[in-house]
Design goal:
The chain is mainly alpha-helical. The chain contains six helices and no strands. The protein has helices at residues 2-57, 60-71, 77-90, 98-128, 131-136, 165-172. The protein starts with a helix and ends in a 6-residue tail after the last helix.
């Protein structure tokens, strides 16, 4: 009779572990989807801020890149965002301008959202690769999450044209500190 109790206990432990694993896979995929939605919202905010900057700086190519980033299909989004990042880095404007400061702030939020999204995708893909999850197909109802790989969207508040040898030396310290 004791062996029946042991079998029931083992079955309950296995069922509990499988339920916990399935819930973890569901939770990780849900968090990755939420992180992508947050990243998408930050990308749209950045494109809107870039549009305002393009109007202030009279840069039609930046305006075009921002509109392209907003209207891009999901499979073309990374290319459009890379182009927008390149255009933003080429803008020479006073860093104290509120429009430029807004673009810098939004770009930092995009970089953070991208990092969070990619971390959650890594965790979800790790859970999908586990042998038990693959064998029981616990992730079959979720689409496979994908990394969002683009150039680092964070902008330096000092545009490249505003960097002079004296500011570079001031940032790096005296010449002998190397």
């Amino acid at each position: 009779m004791w062996w029946v109790v042991v079998v029931v206990a083992v079955v309950m432990l296995v069922a509990t572990y499988l339920t916990w694993t399935a819930a973890r896979v569901d939770r990780l995929h849900g968090r990755a989807a939420t992180a992508y939605a947050a990243l998408d919202a930050q990308l749209v905010r950045r494109a809107a801020a870039a549009t305002a900057l393009a109007e202030a700086a009279q840069r039609p190519e930046l305006m075009y890149a921002a509109r392209t980033a907003i209207e891009a299909r999901p499979d073309e989004r990374d290319i459009a965002e890379n182009d927008l990042t390149r255009q933003l880095r080429s803008v020479v404007i006073d860093p104290d301008t509120p429009v430029f400061a807004e673009v810098v702030a939004v770009s930092r939020r995009v970089a953070l959202a991208r990092q969070v999204h990619n971390d959650l995708v890594r965790d979800a893909l790790g859970a999908r690769r586990r042998p038990l999850v693959r064998a029981l197909r616990l992730a079959r109802k979720h689409p496979r999450p994908a990394y969002f790989d683009v150039d680092d969207p964070a902008l330096d508040p000092t545009p490249p044209a505003a960097v002079t040898p004296s500011t570079v030396q001031a940032r790096s310290g005296p010449a002998g500190d190397g």
